[in-house]
Design brief:
The complex is a heterodimer. By secondary structure, chain A is mainly alpha-helical. Helix content of chain A is 82%, strand content 0%. Chain A has seven helices and no strands. In chain A, helix 1 runs antiparallel to helix 5 and helix 1 crosses helix 6. The longest helix of chain A is centred in the N-terminal third of the chain and has 58 residues. Among the domains of chain B are: 240 residues, no CATH class; 117 residues, no CATH class. Chain B is built from 24 helices and four strands. Chain B is globular, with a radius of gyration of 32 Å. The termini of chain B are far apart. The N terminus of chain B is likely disordered. Classes of the chains: A mainly alpha, B mainly alpha. At the A-B interface, helix 1 and helix 5 of A face helix 6 of B.
Chain lengths: 187, 648
C-alpha cells in the first residue's frame, strides 16, 4: 500500500492546525492586552480627577464659605474613591459618587457670579469638565474592548483555546444613569 | 383613537427615510465591504488605463534606446549580438502583429507570450518604478508645507474655546484608543475642518477658528470624532496612495516634456533636490508640497512645454533643426496626454472619488460610534452647510476636508444667510447717509442681492484700508456700522478688527500689516472661488465629497432625528424627467466615448509611425558614410569647375 498521499494529507492537516493555533493564541493575547491598556487609560483619568479635586475645593472655599456641607461632601467622596480598592464594581460606584458630588459643587457655584467671573475658576471648571469627558470616553473604550474579548473567548474555536490557557471573561466598568447626568452637566 | 393618528404620523415620518434603521456597527461593516469593492474597481480601472499608456510608452522607450544605440555605435561599435538580437525581436514582433491583425501566418503560443511581454513590459515597468519612487519619496515628506500654505497656528492656551477644542481632540482620541493627533487652527472666514498627514503617526487635525464660535461643544465633538475616526481607519494612507497615482501620471508627462521646456526641468530638479536633501523638516515639506502642486498642474490639458516649443512663432534655425530631429516626441506627448485625460476623468478619477466617498461614510459611522450621538453630527453638518466653507490656500487638499470647500447647500436652507445679507446691506446703506433712517432701505431678498453684497463687501474693505491709513471719516463710518450690526458673531470676521484699525491709525505697523493681510486674503479667496475648484477635484467629474443630504440620511438610519420632514422631497415627476434625460444622453455619451477610444488608438498608431520614421532617419544619418559622400561631392564640384574652366 502506498502511504504517501495519506501522509501528505496528515502533514497538511497538522500544518493548518498549528497555524490556526498560533493565530488564535496571538489574537487572544492581543485582545487581552487591549483590555489591560484600556483599563490603564481609565485609571489614569480617574487619578487625574482625584488630583484636581483639592485644587477645586481650595479655589472656591474663599467665595463659598457658607456651603460647607457641599465642600465636605466632595472631600469625603474623594477619599472614598481613593480607598475604593481593586474590585471594579465598588470602585465604579465610588467614582460615580465623586462625579456627582463635583457636579453638585458646580451647580452650587452657579449662584455666585463673582466666582464665575474668576478666570482661575473657569480654567479649573474646563479642566474638570474635560476630565469627566475623558473618564466617560475611556470607560466607553474599555467596555468596548471587554465586550470584544468576552465575545471572542465565547465563540467556538477560540473557547477551546481560552479554556486551555486560562482566559476568563473580564468585567465591565458599569455605567449608571446618574453618571450620564454628570457628563452632560457643563458644556 | 390615538392609534390611527400615531400610525398616520409615523407613516408620514417614515416616508422620507424608507430604509430600516441600522446600528453604527452594521453601517461600518457595510462601508468596509464597499471599500473593498471600490478598491477592486480602482485597480481594474488603473489596469485598463495602463493598456493604452503602455502601448504608447513602450515603442517610445524602444525608439529612444535604439537611437541612443546608434549614436553610441558610431563612436564605439556595439557587439554584433546586440544588433542580431534586436533584429530578431523586431521580426518576431512584426510576425505576431501580422498574425493578430491580418490573420496571416501561424504563431506558436510561446512566441505570442514573448511578444506580449515585449510590448507591455517596458511601459508597465516604467510606470510601476515611478509610482514606487513617488511613494517612497513622499512618505516622509511631512505636512509642514500644507500647514504653511493654510497659515495654520497652534491653539492659544489662554483662550478658553481653543483650550476646549484641544481637550475635545484628546477626548476623542481616548475614545478611539489612538494616540492624539496634533491640533492646529486656521483664522479663515470659512468654516471647515480637515485631517492632514501622510500616515496616522503624523496626523494633524486642522480646524477653522470660526467653527469654535459657530458650533457648541457637542457638535464640535462630533466633527472632531469624524476626523479622528477617519485617521484611525487609515484614510490618510489611502489619500496618500490616491494622490500618488495622480502624481505619477503627472511625472510621466513631465519626463516626456523635460527636454523641451524649463518648467518641466525645474520640476524635475525640485524632485531631485528633495530626494537628496536630508534634514530640516520645514524646508523639506515645503518642497514636497510644491512638487505635489506642480505635478498636479501638469495634468491639466493646458499648454505644456512641448506645445510651446513646437508652436512658437519665429523660431531660430537651431530650433527648427531641433524640431525636425525630435518630432515624434510631440506625438508621444499628445498621445500620453490624451490617454491620461480620457481615462483619468472618465474612469480612474470617478472610481477614486467613489472610494473616497465610502471612506467618508465610514468616518461618519465612526463618529457615531465614538460619541454615541448621531444628532450632534447631523446638526453640525447642517450648520456647516449653511455657512461658507472655503478655506484660503487649501485648494490642493480639498478632498481632505470634512465638508466640500466649494460649498454644499443641499442640507440647509438659504434663509439664514439672505437674512444676514439683508441686515448687512441695510446697516451699510444707513451709515452711508447718516440722515436717512434704515426704514427707507427696506429691500428684502433682491434678485441681485448676492452681487450687491459682494460689491458692498469690497467697498467696506477699501473703507477699512482708508481708515487704517488715517482717514477719520472712514473710521467714523466703520464704527457706526459696527454699532448698527450689534454683536453679530458671523460677521465679526468679515470686518477688520476695530482695535487693529485704531492702532494702525496711530501708526502701529503690525496692526496695519494685519489689516492689509486680511484684505489680501479676502481678495485671493474671491479669486479662488471664481476659478472654481482646483487640485485633485479637477480630474474627476464625480465629487470627492458625498452630498450632505445623503450623509444626513445615513445618520438618520443610525438614529439621528429628522430635522425637517418636509424638506427637499423631489417628487416622482422629477425622477421620471431625470430617467428620460439619462436614456437620451446615455447612448450619445457612449458613442462619444467609443469615438474617443478610436482617436486614442489612432494616436497610438501615429505614434508608432512617427517613431519608426524617426528611427529610420537616424539610422540613415549614422549608417551613411558621410566622409565618402563629402569627398564625392567635393570631387563633383571640382570636376564641374574643371569642366567649366576647360570650356573657357
Amino acid at each position: 500500500m502506498d502511504f504517501t498521499p495519506m501522509l501528505i494529507a496528515i502533514a497538511v492537516v497538522v500544518v493548518l492546525a498549528s497555524w490556526f493555533v498560533l493565530h488564535a493564541y496571538n489574537r487572544l493575547v492581543r485582545m487581552r492586552n487591549n483590555v489591560r491598556n484600556a483599563w490603564a487609560d481609565v485609571d489614569v483619568q480617574l487619578t487625574l480627577r482625584h488630583d484636581l479635586v483639592p485644587n477645586l475645593v481650595e479655589s472656591v472655599k474663599g467665595y463659598m464659605s457658607h456651603e460647607r456641607q457641599t465642600l465636605e461632601a466632595v472631600a469625603q467622596a474623594r477619599s472614598a474613591a481613593m480607598n475604593a480598592g481593586a474590585d471594579l464594581v465598588t470602585r465604579a460606584a465610588a467614582e460615580m459618587a465623586l462625579g456627582s458630588a463635583v457636579g453638585n459643587l458646580f451647580l452650587t457655584a452657579e449662584r455666585y457670579p463673582d466666582l464665575k467671573a474668576s478666570q482661575n475658576f473657569l480654567l479649573l471648571q474646563e479642566q474638570l469638565t474635560t476630565t469627566e469627558n475623558r473618564i466617560a470616553f475611556a470607560r466607553q473604550h474599555y467596555n468596548e474592548m471587554v465586550r470584544q474579548f468576552n465575545t471572542l473567548i465565547a465563540e467556538f474555536p477560540w473557547n477551546l483555546m481560552a479554556a486551555q490557557f486560562g482566559y476568563t471573561p473580564e468585567k465591565l466598568f458599569a455605567a449608571s444613569p446618574q453618571d450620564r447626568a454628570t457628563v452632560q452637566m457643563a458644556s | 383613537m390615538s392609534v390611527p393618528e400615531m400610525t398616520g404620523a409615523a407613516s408620514s415620518f417614515a416616508a422620507p427615510s424608507a430604509r430600516p434603521p441600522e446600528t453604527f456597527f452594521k453601517a461600518q461593516e457595510r462601508n468596509r465591504r464597499a471599500t473593498w469593492r471600490m478598491s477592486a474597481l480602482c485597480v481594474f480601472a488603473a489596469f485598463l488605463m495602463g493598456i493604452p499608456l503602455t502601448l504608447v510608452l513602450s515603442p517610445f522607450l524602444y525608439a529612444v534606446t535604439m537611437a541612443a544605440a546608434e549614436v553610441v555605435n558610431h563612436f564605439s561599435p556595439l557587439p554584433p549580438e546586440f544588433w542580431q538580437i534586436s533584429s530578431d525581436l523586431a521580426r518576431l514582433a512584426v510576425r505576431v502583429a501580422d498574425a493578430v491583425f491580418n490573420q496571416r501566418g501561424v504563431v506558436s503560443p510561446q512566441e505570442l507570450i514573448i511578444a506580449a511581454v515585449l510590448i507591455f513590459l517596458p511601459g508597465i515597468a516604467l510606470a510601476l518604478m515611478l509610482w514606487t519612487g513617488m511613494l517612497l519619496l513622499f512618505r516622509h515628506g511631512g505636512v509642514g508645507g500644507t500647514l504653511a500654505s493654510l497659515n495654520a497656528r497652534e491653539p492659544n492656551p489662554q483662550d478658553l474655546k481653543e483650550l476646549q477644542v484641544a481637550d475635545t481632540v484628546q477626548e476623542m482620541a481616548i475614545a478611539a484608543g489612538l494616540p492624539a493627533p496634533k491640533v492646529m487652527l486656521i483664522d479663515s472666514p470659512g468654516a471647515n475642518a480637515a485631517a492632514i498627514g501622510t500616515c496616522a503617526a503624523d496626523a494633524h487635525i486642522v480646524l477653522c477658528r470660526r467653527l469654535l464660535d459657530d458650533l457648541n461643544r457637542e457638535q464640535l465633538q462630533a466633527l472632531v470624532g469624524h476626523l479622528v475616526a477617519s485617521v484611525g481607519n487609515g484614510d490618510l494612507r489611502i489619500a496618500f496612495t490616491v494622490t500618488s497615482v495622480f502624481e505619477t501620471c503627472g511625472l510621466i508627462v513631465t519626463l516626456i516634456n523635460a527636454p523641451f521646456g524649463r518648467q518641466s526641468r525645474s520640476t524635475l530638479w525640485r524632485i531631485v533636490r528633495y530626494s537628496l536633501r536630508r534634514g530640516t523638516g520645514a524646508a523639506q515639506s515645503a518642497d514636497a508640497e510644491q512638487v505635489a502642486e506642480l505635478l498636479a498642474d501638469t495634468l491639466d490639458m493646458n499648454s505644456s512645454d512641448i506645445d510651446r516649443f513646437f508652436n512658437s512663432s519665429n523660431p531660430g534655425v537651431i530650433r527648427k533643426a531641433l524640431r525636425l530631429m525630435f518630432f515624434p516626441f510631440l506625438f508621444t506627448n499628445l498621445a500620453v496626454e490624451l490617454t491620461l485625460w480620457f481615462f483619468l476623468n472618465l474612469l480612474l478619477g470617478p472610481c477614486m472619488a467613489l472610494l473616497w466617498r465610502t471612506r467618508r461614510y465610514l468616518a461618519d459611522a465612526g463618529a457615531v460610534e465614538l460619541t454615541r450621538n448621531p444628532d450632534a453630527l447631523e446638526s453640525a453638518l447642517q450648520s456647516l452647510s449653511d455657512d461658507s466653507a472655503t478655506v484660503a490656500g487649501g485648494s490642493w487638499a480639498s478632498h481632505l476636508f470634512v465638508v466640500n470647500p466649494g460649498g454644499d447647500r443641499s442640507l440647509g436652507g438659504d434663509s439664514a444667510s439672505t437674512e444676514q445679507q439683508r441686515k448687512f446691506l441695510q446697516a451699510w446703506h444707513a451709515t452711508a447717509n447718516p440722515g436717512v433712517t434704515a426704514a427707507a432701505h427696506n429691500s428684502p431678498s433682491l434678485p441681485g442681492a448676492a452681487v450687491e453684497f459682494a460689491r458692498v463687501r469690497q467697498e467696506m474693505m477699501s473703507t477699512a484700508m482708508a481708515a487704517a491709513t488715517g482717514n477719520a471719516e472712514a473710521t467714523v463710518r466703520l464704527q457706526a456700522f459696527a454699532q448698527a450690526m450689534g454683536v453679530d458673531p458671523a460677521l465679526v470676521h468679515e470686518l477688520p478688527n476695530i482695535n487693529d484699525l485704531m492702532l494702525a491709525q496711530r501708526g502701529d505697523r503690525a496692526a496695519l500689516a494685519r489689516v492689509r493681510m486680511q484684505r489680501q486674503s479676502r481678495q485671493r479667496q474671491q479669486g479662488e472661488t471664481q476659478r472654481g475648484q482646483t487640485g485633485l477635484q479637477t480630474v474627476s467629474f464625480v465629487s470627492f465629497h458625498p452630498p450632505l443630504a445623503k450623509r444626513a440620511k445615513r445618520l438618520q438610519r443610525m438614529g439621528a432625528h429628522l430635522i425637517d420632514p418636509s424638506r427637499r422631497h423631489s417628487g416622482l415627476g422629477g425622477k421620471i424627467v431625470l430617467a428620460i434625460l439619462y436614456l437620451i444622453l446615455g447612448p450619445l455619451l457612449l458613442t462619444c466615448g467609443v469615438l474617443m477610444l478610436f482617436v486614442i488608438a489612432m494616436m497610438i498608431g501615429l505614434n508608432l509611425l512617427c517613431l519608426g520614421l524617426w528611427l529610420a532617419l537616424i539610422h540613415w544619418l549614422f549608417a551613411v558614410d558621410w566622409a565618402s559622400v563629402i569627398a564625392g561631392f567635393t570631387k563633383f564640384v571640382q570636376d564641374v569647375a574643371a569642366a567649366l574652366s576647360q570650356r573657357r
